[in-house]
Amino acid sequence: MFSIHDESQIITLLESHGHKKFRYAQVENALYKNLITDFSLIETLPKDIRELLVANCFYTSLTLHSEKTDPEWQTTKFLFKTHDDRMIEAVIMRHLSGRNTLCVSSQAGCPMACSFCATGKLWLIRNLEFYEIIDQIMWAVHHLAREDRKLRNIVYMGMGEPMLNYEHVKKSIHIACNKKKLDLSNRRITVSTCGIAPRIVDFARDFPQVSLAISLHAPNDEARKRIMPVENTYPLDVLMSAIDEYVAITNKRVFYEYIMINWVTDRLEYARELGELLKNRLAHVNFIPYNPGEGTDSDGFLPTSKMIIKKFQDTLDSYGIPSTVRHTMGDDIDAACGQLALKEEGKSLATETGKTIKKPQE
Ligand code: SF4
């Protein structure tokens, strides 16, 4: 059995049974335009092809473990179980402007171990297949369609480091943007990385229209190293030269994510250092108030006060760098990346190992 989103497998299947290639266009139309999930109901196809699809393909690889929507109906968080019982998360964000964004996961767990992040506490469990990413997207498309809404934006900011599962992320972006499939604009997709420098340049060449977000979170090597182990492999100067190359290729503004943690990332001299670092660059900074969650605050991190965040913004303003403070949607439903999965995987890893969460064997 294989995924219905695997175009080359479906075409091979159809051709091996003597069907013409145009039949795939009918499958595509049924799946992505008419949102049919049951292959036996694709009326444009003859009965034998419908039976062929039912016998050989699955519509989705994910089962819904839980779904939570916040009282203001701004965010819905899905916790999915993969075929091998791993937990992954996806979050729909409904913005007041009417725009709907989906945050998708690219890995189960994450090897990058950023100290402020729930997913990092799981380490890497495995990479997701491209169709597991598409399955999250299709789930959201259907969910929003039932509310008479459309998915407009996708951000690869859920569980995992997308640049470490690049081939599958790439394939999923191609499916999302394909006019005959989901037909989303390249410009409405954002991929976020904690700083896998060589991949940033590949990404610029492969997707010059797709937006890039950098999880920066600190303006110098020492401060970054304290919370982001990636700094040991790709220090700030290496990261910034990759970003400069990205901008030279794409001429696009880069989004810098900066988490505000009391006394850790929010010292006012850091605001000035951040200003110096970004002042001659095409940059926009997103401040993210730290979201402490159950099982994630082992470092004793606390959120920064609104007053300090405002001071940071004023300092960046004086360097001519635009910034916004991310509205923390869905705090009460653990909408920060990895928090629900950590709770569930924490239970299952504890069962598997007889201990609490531990790093899988190399
Ligand atoms: S912040 Fe991103 S890169 Fe860092 S551990 Fe979490 S998921 Fe991985």
Quick overview of this protein structure:
The protein is α/β, with parallel strands linked by helices and 362 residues long.
Helices and strands, in order, run as EHHHEEEEEEEHEHEHEHHHEHEHEH
CATH structural architecture of the largest domain: Alpha-Beta Barrel
* Main pleated-sheet profile: 10 strands, mixed
End-to-end C-alpha gap? 30 Å
The CATH class assignment of the largest domain is Alpha Beta
Number of domains: 2
- Overall mean pLDDT stands at 91
What is the name of the CATH topology of the largest domain? Answer: TIM Barrel
Number of strands: 14
- Overall helicity: 25-40%
Which strand order spans the largest sheet, edge to edge or round the barrel?
3-4-5-6-9-10-11-12-13-14
Helix count equals 12
At the fourth CATH level, what is the homologous superfamily of the largest domain?
Answer: Aldolase class I
Please tell me how large the radius of gyration is.
21 Å
Class by helix and strand content?
A: alpha/beta
Question: Which small molecules are bound?
Answer: iron/sulfur cluster
**Which geometry do the CA atoms define?**
elongated
Runs in which pLDDT lies below 50 for 5 or more consecutive residues are 350-362
Strand content: 15-25%
List the helices and strands and how they pair.
Elements: E1 2-3, H1 7-16, H2 22-33, H3 47-56, E2 57-58, E3 63-69, E4 75-81, E5 87-94, E6 100-103, E7 107-109, E8 124-127, H4 130-146, E9 153-156, H5 166-177, E10 189-193, H6 197-206, E11 211-215, H7 221-227, H8 230-233, H9 236-250, E12 254-260, H10 268-278, E13 283-289, H11 306-318, E14 323-325, H12 339-353
Parallel strand pairs: 1-2, 6-9, 9-10, 10-11, 11-12, 12-13, 13-14
Antiparallel strand pairs: 3-4, 4-5, 5-6, 7-8
Helix pairs in contact: 4-5, 6-9, 10-11
This protein binds iron/sulfur cluster.
Residues 110, 112-114, 117, 119-120, 159-161, 194, 215, 337 line the site of iron/sulfur cluster (SF4).
